[in-house]
Amino acid sequence: MNRINPLYLALLLIVILLLAIFKLDNAKVELADAQESLIETTALATNLSGLKDVYGNQKKSKAAILKILKNSSLKQSNIMKKVKKSGIIISSKSMDLRALNSLLGKLFNGAYNIVALDVKKLSETKVSLHVEIKW
Q1: Are residues 107 and 43 in the same domain?
Q2: Domain boundary residue, one of 14, 40, 55
Q3: What is the dihedral of CA 109, 105, 64, 96, to 10 degrees?
Q4: pTM of full prediction above 0.85
Q5: For a tag site, which of 20, 57, 62, 124 has the least CB within 10 Å?
Q6: Angle 97-109/58-69 helices, nearest 10 degrees?
Q7: Distance between CA 117 and CA 43 in Å, rounded?
Q8: 130 with 69, same domain?
Q9: Are residues 11 and 41 in the same domain?
Q10: Which residues of the chain fall below pLDDT 70?
Q11: How far does the chain reach from its first CA to its final CA, in angstroms?
Q12: Which of 68, 109, 73 is nearest to 88 (CA)?
């Protein structure tokens, strides 16, 4: 009577086996979720790294903007620029439409963080401009 019934041992082993299989399936699902999360995080990190390379280089952005402002088509526009540590402010009280088109084309095609853009029509051929670019 002091002996344990072998059927109880077999039942205990089957229950332990079922619990182990259940835990293993849960671990597989968690691993698949973690792998998907890793792929998404890697893609996001790659994108952020690329954006940092494009937008994070303050000296390159500053030099490129100053080069754009020295363009001969913009000389007659009386463009005022205020260079700060955090960015540059470009403004003009009276600007020709061709000069505006040239300037905005170069700014929009470049990789600049344009925070504010205000263009007001003064007449059929003149506009006023205010642009803030941060870096």
Answers
A1: no
A2: 55
A3: -170
A4: no
A5: 124
A6: 160
A7: 31
A8: yes
A9: yes
A10: 1, 54
A11: 84
A12: 68
**H/E run at residue 116:** strand 113-121
Residue 65 shares a structural domain with residue 120 = yes
> Using alpha carbons only, what angle is made at residue 36 by residues 32 and 37, rounded to the nearest 5 degrees?
115
Q: Are residues 12 and 76 in the same domain?
A: no
Residues 36 and 91 in one domain: no
* φ/ψ (deg, to 5) at 93: -80, -30
User: Is residue 64 classed exposed, middle or buried when 0-12, 13-18 and 19+ CB atoms within 10 A define those classes?
Assistant: middle
pLDDT digits 0-9 by tens, 78-109: 888 898 888 889 998 988 888 888 888 888 88
Query: Which residue range is the domain that position 23 belongs to?
Result: 1-55
Q: Which of 94, 97, 92 is nearest to 82 (CA)?
A: 92
